[in-house]
C-alpha cells in the first residue's frame, strides 16, 4: 500500500520540490493530545513521510503537552495542519475566524461522522451510572479544550439530575483534569479516580475499546483490559473534529494535503489506522457549518 501511494505521488513530487519549495520551506503538523507524545509521533510518522514526499520540503511533527499547544501553534502560524476536536476548532475559530479552514472529517465504519463522550469506571467499584452512583466520588475530565473530554459532558451530565453540578464538593467529591484522554483512562483503570470521560465512536465491541477512539488506542497500547471497565454514561452524538489547514498556506499546498489525507485510507490502511485512532472509512470533505452548534456551546460555556 505504501508503495502504491509513493507511485501515486511520484508524478507530483518533482513539481512539488520546485513549486512548493519557493513558497514554503517546511510543513508542520500538530498532533492533538490523547495519548503520550511518543506514541502520537509514532502514529503520525508515516503521514510525515508521505507529506515530505508530496510537498518536497522537510516535515516536522509537533505533539504538545496539551490541546492549547496545538491551538496556539495554528493561531501563531507555527503549525500548518492538525486534526482538531470540535471544541478545539471552536476555540481556534473564536480567537481568529481566519486562522484555519476545516477541510476533512473522519468517517466511521458505518458511514456516520459522529462520536460520543463515554463515561466509564472500574467494574469492581460497583458504579453503574453517573446518578446516583457517583455521588461523593471523584470524577475526571481530560483537557479544558477537549470536546468529549470536557465541553459536552460538562453540559450534558448536569442535565441528568438537578443535584449534579461540576463544582467540586457539591455532587462529586472532586472534579479534576487529568491532562488528556490517555491519562483519564489510566487514572480510572489504576483506581486514582472513580470515573471519567473519554471519546469513542461507540461502534463495535466494548472489549475492543469500540472501533476507534481513545479507548481503542489504549487497548492497542496494552494499557487496559476493557473487561475491567464498565460504561456508565454516553453523550449525544458529537460531530467529529475537522482536519484543518492554515488559511495562509498557498492554495496548491492546501489542495495537495487535502488530497493526500482524503486518499490516505485507501492507499495505506495501516497509516490511516494510526492517524485516525482506529478503524474508519477514512475522511470526507467538511465545512465550517458542521461546527456552528459546538461553537455556540463553547461560547455559552465561556460566558457561564
SSE pattern = HEHEHEHEEEHEHEHEEEHHEH
Structural class: alpha/beta
End-to-end gap: 49 Å
**Number of beta strands:** 12
What do we call the CATH homologous superfamily of the largest domain? Periplasmic binding protein-like II
Helix content: 25-40%
Q: CATH topology of the largest domain, what is it called?
A: D-Maltodextrin-Binding Protein, domain 2
Q: What percent strand? A: 15-25%
CATH class of the largest domain: Alpha Beta
Oligomeric state of the chains in view: single chain
Count of spatially separate domains: 2
What coarse outline follows from CA principal-axis ratios? globular
Write the CATH architecture name of the largest domain.
3-Layer(aba) Sandwich
Task: Give an account of the 3D structure.
- The chain has about 300 residues and is an alpha/beta fold.
- It has helices spanning about 1-20, 35-55, 65-75, 85-95, 145-155, 180-190, 215-220, 250-265, 270-275, 290-304, and strands at about 25-30, 60, 80-85, 100-105, 115-120, 140, 175, 195-200, 230-235, 240, 240-245, 280-285.
- The radius of gyration is 20 Å and the shape is globular.
- The protein has two domains: about 1-110 and about 240-290, Periplasmic binding protein-like II (D-Maltodextrin-Binding Protein, domain 2); about 115-240, Periplasmic binding protein-like II (D-Maltodextrin-Binding Protein, domain 2, 3-Layer(aba) Sandwich), CATH 3.40.190.10.
- About 40% of the residues lie in helices and about 20% in strands.
- Strands 2-1-3-11-4-12 form a six-stranded mixed beta sheet, sandwiched between helices. Strands 5, 6, 7, 8, 9 and 10 form a six-stranded mixed beta sheet that branches.
- This is Phosphate-import protein PhnD.
- Pfam families: Phosphonate-bd.
- It comes from Pseudoruegeria aquimaris.
- Belongs to the phosphate/phosphite/phosphonate binding protein family.
Amino acid at each position: 500500500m505504501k508503495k502504491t501511494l509513493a507511485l501515486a505521488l511520484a508524478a507530483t513530487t518533482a513539481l512539488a520540490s520546485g513549486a512548493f519549495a519557493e513558497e514554503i520551506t517546511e510543513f508542520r503538523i500538530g498532533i492533538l493530545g490523547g495519548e503520550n507524545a511518543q506514541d502520537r509521533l509514532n502514529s503520525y510518522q508515516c503521514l510525515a513521510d508521505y507529506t515530505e514526499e508530496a510537498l518536497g520540503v522537510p516535515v516536522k511533527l509537533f505533539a504538545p503537552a496539551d490541546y492549547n499547544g496545538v491551538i496556539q501553534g495554528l493561531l501563531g502560524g507555527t503549525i500548518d495542519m492538525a486534526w482538531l476536536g470540535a471544541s478545539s476548532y471552536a476555540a481556534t475559530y473564536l480567537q481568529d475566524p481566519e486562522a484555519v479552514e476545516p477541510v476533512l472529517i473522519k468517517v466511521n465504519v458505518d458511514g456516520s461522522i459522529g462520536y460520543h463522550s463515554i463515561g466509564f469506571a472500574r467494574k469492581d467499584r460497583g458504579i453503574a451510572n453517573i446518578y446516583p452512583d457517583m455521588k461523593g466520588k471523584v470524577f475526571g475530565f481530560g483537557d479544558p479544550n477537549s470536546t468529549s473530554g470536557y465541553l459536552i459532558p460538562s453540559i450534558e451530565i448536569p442535565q441528568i439530575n438537578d443535584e449534579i453540578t461540576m463544582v467540586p464538593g457539591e455532587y462529586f467529591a472532586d472534579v479534576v483534569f487529568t491532562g488528556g484522554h490517555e491519562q483519564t483512562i489510566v487514572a480510572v483503570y489504576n483506581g486514582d479516580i472513580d470515573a471519567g470521560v473519554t471519546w469513542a465512536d461507540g461502534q463495535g465491541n466494548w472489549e475492543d475499546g469500540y472501533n476507534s477512539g481513545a479507548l481503542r488506542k489504549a487497548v492497542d497500547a496494552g494499557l487496559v483490559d476493557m473487561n475491567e471497565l464498565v460504561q456508565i454514561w454516553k453523550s449525544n452524538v458529537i460531530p467529529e473534529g475537522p482536519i484543518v489547514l492554515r488559511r495562509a498556506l498557498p492554495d496548491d499546498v492546501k489542495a495537495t494535503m487535502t488530497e493526500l489525507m482524503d486518499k490516505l485510507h485507501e492507499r495505506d490502511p495501516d497509516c490511516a489506522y494510526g492517524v485516525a485512532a482506529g478503524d474508519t472509512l477514512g475522511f470526507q470533505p467538511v465545512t465550517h457549518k458542521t461546527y456552528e452548534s459546538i461553537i455556540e456551546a463553547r461560547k455559552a460555556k465561556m460566558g457561564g
